[in-house]
UniProtKB/TrEMBL annotation, chain A:
<feature type="transmembrane region" description="Helical">
    <location>
        <begin position="191"/>
        <end position="210"/>
    </location>
</feature>
<keyword id="KW-1133">Transmembrane helix</keyword>
<keyword id="KW-0472">Membrane</keyword>
<feature type="compositionally biased region" description="Basic and acidic residues">
    <location>
        <begin position="60"/>
        <end position="69"/>
    </location>
</feature>
<feature type="transmembrane region" description="Helical">
    <location>
        <begin position="164"/>
        <end position="185"/>
    </location>
</feature>
<dbReference type="GO" id="GO:0016020">
    <property type="term" value="C:membrane"/>
</dbReference>
<protein>
    <submittedName>
        <fullName>Uncharacterized protein</fullName>
    </submittedName>
</protein>
<feature type="region of interest" description="Disordered">
    <location>
        <begin position="60"/>
        <end position="88"/>
    </location>
</feature>
<keyword id="KW-0812">Transmembrane</keyword>
From TrEMBL, chain B:
<dbReference type="InterPro" id="IPR036188">
    <property type="entry name" value="FAD/NAD-bd_sf"/>
</dbReference>
<dbReference type="InterPro" id="IPR011774">
    <property type="entry name" value="Geranylgeranyl_Rdtase_pln/cyn"/>
</dbReference>
<dbReference type="InterPro" id="IPR011777">
    <property type="entry name" value="Geranylgeranyl_Rdtase_fam"/>
</dbReference>
<keyword id="KW-0521">NADP</keyword>
<dbReference type="InterPro" id="IPR050407">
    <property type="entry name" value="Geranylgeranyl_reductase"/>
</dbReference>
<dbReference type="GO" id="GO:0015979">
    <property type="term" value="P:photosynthesis"/>
</dbReference>
<feature type="domain" description="FAD-binding">
    <location>
        <begin position="59"/>
        <end position="89"/>
    </location>
</feature>
<dbReference type="InterPro" id="IPR010253">
    <property type="entry name" value="BchP_ChlP_pln/prok"/>
</dbReference>
<dbReference type="InterPro" id="IPR002938">
    <property type="entry name" value="FAD-bd"/>
</dbReference>
């Protein structure tokens, strides 16, 4: 819900026409904005006309986030009441006939893929909480493959990035120190040595592969899981071998 | 080795007037050891080790009259073996999906009228309700047959009976192991005379070998200490739906995947003769099966609206073969051995096929019922089985592990199934049970696409974790 409210408010911010208006009473309607469609379609045309709207945008964003909170509170109250009936249906003004309407995601003349990813994630999360009956009348046509690869890449973020950088730097510094002390080769000299470069590479790969202690366990578990079925099948041949021995 | 061989002479002498037709050269290596010990007898043992059975043919009992038992009994009796089939309930309708691949119709010579429906379309529905139609690549004569188990089972059993097998309506209780080599197994069972509620008569039966085809709760397996397997529980409701809704399921089966439906399997709607079967299965969360069943029904809500549940069934599905599938002259086949594939949960064809393969091994080892069989003869069946089907089982296990793991993986699975190349390969291997090597370029493309789908779906999963709806 959060994302819907935010992006709705962003779109509003772009068309200067809306800024003059007071937006506060709008939030409650945010989920069923039938009337908004005309103006959002117009956004594509008006892109050039917006340059110095930074401040108002911020203001709008703030109001947007407040809208969320309101919306969230409303939703949770509703959810609590309706969990049993499972009659919840996912609705979003940008979700039309089983597909995301890309025209509604346009920002600065380009499709806002980030917004689309968030919207689809929201939809999937919603469906996980409230599984919907699959009908033949309105099939889902949206395919995540239409989102280009760089949009995914931009959003990928390693949570342990800081930790890993720090660890690699500390290991590198300590080894550089040790190598210097042992061989007398200074840091500047080390950067020129092939062996030292290879050592740096190996360290970086090692740091990435084994990020946490539980990675060791995970790798072991994966290996076990991969071989379990083979073991289950081979057991009928084991007692024959024992007999022979 | 020597002890078996020496004993074998006793039997052979008794029936020595009967000439051994199988004076083959294939067993050259074995008689050579005899020439050292007892050169005089070389002429007689040239065929096989085991003694001939005197005055009768080899007697084999088949416990259980499902597809495995039925086809085993038929093959045995056709191979000249005295066959006794013991089935507890002759009109038993087992809870089962009832799908058979096309090749089974040909291989087992099944009449077309036992097939209720010919499924030519499959719909796979992902957790986010993306539906993919599978089956456009099917040729006009290709289909998945849907049968009712009571019909198929009794057909196979009757065919064995026509060929000369003795079918006993009885409940197998236990068996006594032979004390000496080559002495018979004594089976204890209760025979019913077919009257409802009639008290059975306890009887015993002496047989030379036993094929255990008595399903997941196999008593034969228990009596040979075959060990346990993990099992999945499958729950199924037969739902009679209004005629106008039934039109949709005319030749279409549906598969639902998702955490709501089953954490490690799939939910299904299969068309039956005049109703549909709605069900789901799981290994890991057996206690929640009712919840998953409700979820399956909810997912198919609109399509089965107004349906009446006419029967509710639940049954165990083995996950992997038992630790021992063979002991002495007792072999397990079908569900009793644990031959159900992962991922698709298919078992009828493999049961019938394993029954036949085991029976073939016995017929061959006994030289059409003339000789005693031993464990080595039955091992041949295991060897052949594992060689033929192990790759199929392994591939399906890998598929299940990769694609039924989580919701994003399932999304990727459904996305992958939309690909025509995948559909062609899947149906070819399902319908004909043979692995056809694909086009390497297409394989590569498929691998890249699948990895792409998996990455995308998992990226979305991470986005979902950040959100709070």
């Amino acid at each position: 819900m959060a994302s819907i409210a935010i992006s709705a408010s962003l779109q509003r911010a772009y068309s200067s026409y809306h800024i003059a208006k007071k937006q506060q009473p709008q939030p409650k309607l945010a989920r069923s904005l039938g009337t908004k469609q005309a103006s959002t379609n117009a956004v594509t045309l008006k892109v050039e006309g917006q340059t110095s709207l930074g401040v108002t945008e911020q203001v709008q964003d703030k109001s947007g986030s407040r809208i969320d909170e309101l919306g969230n509170a409303e939703n949770t109250a509703k959810d609590g009441a309706e969990t049993e009936s499972s009659g919840m249906k996912f609705t979003d003004q940008r979700w039309k006939n089983g597909i995301w309407d890309l025209n509604m995601f346009v920002k600065d003349g380009k499709v806002n893929w980030d917004g689309l990813i968030v919207a689809e994630a929201t939809r999937r999360k919603f469906l996980e909480l409230f599984p919907e009956a699959a009908t033949n009348q309105d099939p889902v046509l949206f395919k995540s493959s239409i989102i280009p690869w760089w949009a995914w890449l931009k959003r990928s973020y390693l949570p342990e990035a800081e930790l890993l950088n720090g660890r690699a730097a500390m290991v590198g510094f300590f080894i550089a120190y040790a190598v210097d002390a042992l061989t007398g080769l200074d840091v500047v000299g080390q950067t020129g040595s092939f062996i030292c470069k290879a050592g740096v590479f190996a360290t970086v790969v090692g740091v990435i592969l084994f990020r946490r202690t539980k990675d060791f366990d995970n790798l072991k578990k994966l290996a076990d899981e991969a071989t379990l079925y083979d073991k289950q099948w081979q057991s009928s041949w084991q007692d024959q071998k024992e007999k022979k021995v | 080795m020597t002890s078996i061989a020496l004993k074998s002479f006793v039997g052979l002498r008794q029936s020595s007037p009967e000439k051994n037709p199988h004076f083959t050269t294939t067993t050259q290596a074995k008689p050579l050891t005899f020439t050292v010990q007892n050169p005089r007898k070389l002429r007689v043992v040239a065929g096989k080790f085991s003694p001939k059975v005197a005055g009768r043919n080899l007697r084999v009992a088949v416990i259980g009259g499902g597809p495995a038992g039925g086809s085993a009994a038929e093959t045995l009796v056709k191979g000249g073996i005295e066959t006794i089939l013991i089935e507890r309930k002759l009109d038993n309708c087992k809870p089962c999906g009832g799908a058979i691949p096309l090749c089974m119709v040909g291989e087992f010579d099944l009449p077309l009228d036992i097939i209720d429906r010919k499924v030519t379309k499959m719909k796979m529905i992902s957790p986010s309700n993306v539906a993919v139609d599978i089956g456009q690549t099917l040729k006009p004569h290709e289909y998945i047959g849907m049968v009712r188990r009571e019909v198929l089972d009794s057909y196979l059993r009757d065919r064995a009976k026509e060929n000369g097998a003795t079918v006993i309506n009885g409940l197998f209780l236990k068996m006594d192991m032979p004390k000496e080599e080559n002495s018979p197994y004594v089976l204890h069972f209760t025979e019913y005379d077919g009257k409802v509620g009639g008290v059975g008569v306890r009887k015993t039966l002496e047989v030379d070998a036993v094929i255990g085809a008595d399903g997941a709760n196999s008593r034969v397996a228990k009596s040979i200490g075959a060990g346990d397997y993990e099992y999945a529980i499958a729950f199924q409701e037969r739902v009679k739906i209004p005629d106008d809704k039934m039109v949709y399921y005319e030749n279409l089966a549906e598969m639902y995947v998702g955490d709501d439906v089953s954490p490690d399997f799939y939910g299904w709607v299969f068309p039956k003769c005049d109703h549909v079967a709605v069900g789901t299965g799981t290994v890991t969360h057996k206690g929640d099966i009712k919840k998953f069943q409700l979820a399956t029904r909810n997912r198919a809500k609109d399509k089965i609206l107004g349906g009446k549940i006419i029967r509710v069934e639940a049954h165990p599905i083995p996950e992997h073969p038992r630790p021992r599938r063979l002991a002495g002259r007792v072999a397990l086949v079908g569900d009793a051995a644990g031959y159900v594939t992962k991922c698709s949960g298919e078992g009828i064809y493999f049961a019938a096929k394993s029954g036949r393969m085991c029976a073939e091994a016995i017929v061959e080892g006994s030289e059409k019922g003339k000789r005693m069989v031993n464990e080595g003869d039955l091992r041949k069946y295991l060897e052949k089985w594992d060689k033929t089907y192990w790759p199929t089982y392994k591939v399906l296990d890998v598929l299940q592990k990769v694609f039924y793991r989580s919701n994003p993986a399932r999304e990727a699975f459904v996305e992958m199934c939309a690909d025509e190349y995948v559909q062609k390969m899947t149906f070819d291997s399902y319908l004909y049970k043979r692995v056809v090597p694909g086009n390497p370029l297409d394989d590569l493309k498929l691998a890249v696409n699948t990895i792409g789908s998996l990455i995308r779906a998992n990226a979305l999963r991470r986005e979902m974790e950040k959100l709070s709806v």
